[in-house]
Amino acid sequence: MNTNRRTPLDVEAVRADFPVLHQEVRPGVPLIYLDNAATTQKPLAVVDTMSDYYRLYNANVHRGIHKLSEAATDAYEAARARIAEFINAASHREIIYTRNTSESINLVAMTWGRANVGSGDVILSTEMEHHSNLVPWQILAEEKGAELRYVPVRDDGLLDVAAFDAMLDGRVKLVAVTQMSNVLGTINPVADMAAKAHAAGALILVDAAQSVPHMPVDVRAIDADFFAFSGHKMVGPTGIGILYGKRELLEAMPPYMYGGDMIKRVTFEGAEWNDLPWKFEAGTPSIAEAIGLGAAVDYLTETGMENIHAHEQALIDYAAERLVEVPGVRVFGPEDVTQRGGVASFSLDGMHPHDIAQILDHEGVAVRAGHHCAMPLHQRLSVVATTRASFYLYNSFSEVDRLIEALYKAKEVFTF
Amino acid sequence: MDRQAQIEFLLDHYENPRHYGVLADPSLAQSGMNPGCGDVVTLYLQLDEDERIVEVSFEGQGCTISQAGASLLTELLTGLTLDEAAALDGETLAGQLGRDIVRNRTACATLGLNTLRVAAEKWRAGEALTDTSDIVRF
Prior knowledge:
Number of domains of chain B: 1
Low-confidence stretches of chain A: none
CATH topology of the largest domain in chain A: Aspartate Aminotransferase, domain 2
Largest sheet of chain B: 4 strands, mixed
Helix content of chain B: 40-55%
Shape of chain B: globular
Number of helices of chain A: 14
Oligomer: heterodimer
Distance between the termini of chain B: 30 Å
Strand order of the largest sheet of chain A: 4-10-9-8-7-5-6
Distance between the termini of chain A: 30 Å
Radius of gyration of chain B: 14 Å
Number of strands of chain B: 4
CATH class of chain B: Alpha Beta
Shape of chain A: globular
Largest interface: A-B, 15 and 16 residues
Mean pLDDT of chain B: 89
Structural class of chain A: alpha/beta
Strand content of chain B: 15-25%
């Protein structure tokens, strides 16, 4: 069935790095983890790196003049530098540690947004955005009397680029777009969109939560003004995210949170802000998590992002083929797998996504059912909820087979 | 009840919902919805002078748990006063639906019950209560 499928990855070797995958959900039923768009599993290297920090050199970072603090600071800042390299940022000063993608986007909305978007301005979003790249702009638009417009999604799951071109007028201050949809899997042409946005006098913020983990990215090739992603979706820990911003933009922006570390000098009269990137990092950061994200980036780099991308393309190609063979299944998103990442949201006639997910869970298959934090998109698709399977480097073709078997099982249970 | 029997029990309520339909002249009617998944339940209650539920029916659409849960709820309601009905809790439901189900899919399992409670509150507040297009979102 799947013997002619090729991948550059040695999936068994990869899986050996992830202890959590080797378990049964109930006796005789192995775990098949297909909920990677929600969060990803961590290799032992990341787990060990974080526990090493706590076991061997835990200390607060910056300004400690003792051995542990220097070690902690070195590891924390070295991780930042490697993350900068991973996305080809020009400087570590353009890499800000946040809690997650949502916080990164809120930071831009509350600082750059408040200072630069005014009454009568337009923010361009799309119909396929995750709530985290949507609600902050709704709030900003309301606050400032600006207008929020949505670039439509076509019936084939691709962004309507012609509509984007038409909507990009002189009033647009910001384009906020996902590089890869967490529901449709659609990969958007963000480099083209950035060039067009800049030509129209607008900036572009890219929600990279689903793209950075799954394909090679280059923020300078895209020419992104802001770029946001989360550690936990890229085999890193929860509680750490990144905001990349072009240096000149970050320099001009007011801080987001105020307090310790983001200052250079404080008197009773006032404060002077610290240099980038620390201007945007108030208080003691998530040190272990930042170091853990560094280890995650190392792991992904060693595996090779092109290899991971190719593996997922092979998986989604196989999965889409097998899914549409199941009577009553409809897969959302582009048919051309080169236009999509390893996310497959689908519906099954006559079965509610919660019920599908429940039966699949019993068969060991972990998927997600609901609106996936994209309710407007589901409104556009005229469905209330979908079931979503999402793949990563440690998933195999036989796991796709198990997903399909479990779907047939679900149909059996629900046939009256 | 073993798992297979549990599934069959729930599917029976899903396929053959008890007290399904609209009441001609209800004392209260209320719709409730889980926006995250689109499950909807509309409850109709007929009360006597002592606020005892003498007739109940429901309509709805959505996942098995929400609809079977509503069906089971209607079986529990007849003969209860409105206060007694509003005081029904998750434990009672869990006994009927299965503890695991209620724990893992609380929103689905309690949709009917939550809708009932909203209806009871409105009744207490003296609000007119038969516009089922006024859907409460949980």
